[in-house]
């Protein structure tokens, strides 16, 4: 077992813009009890890392960033039974630190990769795909014949979730910011697409649902869309606010929910839905089956070297990416 390994990691020593990301050389010791050491082959890029970098999600500094990656197990700590040296693995939760060439990771958060799932594919689907899985299958299992509203339908989570919902027989109304992204959304399972730069979301949703609204809205945009999302719901509908791409949502008076017909509101995180080992294994297995069988097609449309993470984050924040983006160590 290696006791000390020199690695490189993208870290922040203060909160701020992309310029605060640094390329640091570090030493990683042997994995402790319940840990494995993973050499990364591909790393996923997600909005949560921007929130961590700019301070929206405060973290002790200095810290590495990154939520998901795939690679090979280099060493195994005491007490780890389900993983062995040489295993191909991936993860999408636990302590930040995926923006690195290698790291120690709690083994309970790590799953084995089936042979048909490549490192790049795994790094691009673990966080987004497991998010789509809990949104559609666990928070409130969607039903065949329902109509739902999904914001940012051309984004990484959107492309996976809309295909998945479509496979389940759900009619998806997607929102996008441009006509180019509308084409992408339609190609990934959206029956209807609203271009927010020139269309009124609430009016279009009402028109597309005979004035009734939808039973559930999935909103990762945040501040800019929150009130419109509530107005798209039918009475007793569910608002799933799972991201803040446009900024954090302002405090919500409960009367906003009452006045619109006893709405329900949840602010879930992937960590809460993968904390249980059995649930993580079950969710990952379903995700790998959906992707491996071709029911969900994944587009890795951007690749950056890990050391160029600042450039990758800048493009993501500016909505200049589509599908998934991976960082290569």
From TrEMBL:
<dbReference type="InterPro" id="IPR036291">
    <property type="entry name" value="NAD(P)-bd_dom_sf"/>
</dbReference>
<dbReference type="InterPro" id="IPR020843">
    <property type="entry name" value="ER"/>
</dbReference>
<dbReference type="InterPro" id="IPR013154">
    <property type="entry name" value="ADH-like_N"/>
</dbReference>
<keyword id="KW-0521">NADP</keyword>
<feature type="domain" description="Enoyl reductase (ER)">
    <location>
        <begin position="16"/>
        <end position="327"/>
    </location>
</feature>
<protein>
    <submittedName>
        <fullName>Quinone oxidoreductase</fullName>
    </submittedName>
</protein>
<keyword id="KW-0560">Oxidoreductase</keyword>
<dbReference type="InterPro" id="IPR047618">
    <property type="entry name" value="QOR-like"/>
</dbReference>
<dbReference type="InterPro" id="IPR011032">
    <property type="entry name" value="GroES-like_sf"/>
</dbReference>
<dbReference type="Pfam" id="PF08240">
    <property type="entry name" value="ADH_N"/>
</dbReference>
<dbReference type="Pfam" id="PF00107">
    <property type="entry name" value="ADH_zinc_N"/>
</dbReference>
<dbReference type="InterPro" id="IPR013149">
    <property type="entry name" value="ADH-like_C"/>
</dbReference>
């Amino acid at each position: 077992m290696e006791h000390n390994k020199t690695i490189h990691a993208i870290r922040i020593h203060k909160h701020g813009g992309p310029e605060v990301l640094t390329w640091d050389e570090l030493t990683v010791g042997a994995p402790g009890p319940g840990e494995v050491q993973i050499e990364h082959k591909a790393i996923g890029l997600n909005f949560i890392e921007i929130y961590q970098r700019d301070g929206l999600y405060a973290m002790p500094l200095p810290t590495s960033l990154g939520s998901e990656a795939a690679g090979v197990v280099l060493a195994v700590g005491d007490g780890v039974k389900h993983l062995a040296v040489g295993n191909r693995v991936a993860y999408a939760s636990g302590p930040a630190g995926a923006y690195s060439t290698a790291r120690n990771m709690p083994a309970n958060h790590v799953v084995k990769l089936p042979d048909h799932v490549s490192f790049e594919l795994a790094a691009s689907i673990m966080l987004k795909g497991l998010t789509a899985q809990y949104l559609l299958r666990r928070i409130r299992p969607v039903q065949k014949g329902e109509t739902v509203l999904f914001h940012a339908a051309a984004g990484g989570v959107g492309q996976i979730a809309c295909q998945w919902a479509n496979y389940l027989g759900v009619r998806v109304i997607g929102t996008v910011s441009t006509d180019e992204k509308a084409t992408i959304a339609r190609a990934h399972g959206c029956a209807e697409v609203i271009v927010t730069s020139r269309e009124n979301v609430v009016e279009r949703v009402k028109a597309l649902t005979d004035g009734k609204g939808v039973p559930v809205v999935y909103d990762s945009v945040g501040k800019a869309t929150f009130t419109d999302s509530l107005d798209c719901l039918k009475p007793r509908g569910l608002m799933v606010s799972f991201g803040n791409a446009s900024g954090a949502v302002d405090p919500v008076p409960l009367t906003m929910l009452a006045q619109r017909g006893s709405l329900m509101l949840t602010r879930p995180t992937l960590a809460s839905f993968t904390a249980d080992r059995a649930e993580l294994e079950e969710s990952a297995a379903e995700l790998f089956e959906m992707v491996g069988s071709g029911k969900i097609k994944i587009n890795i449309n951007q690749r950056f070297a890990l050391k160029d993470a600042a450039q990758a984050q800048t493009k993501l924040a500016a909505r200049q990416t589509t599908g998934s983006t991976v960082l290569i160590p």
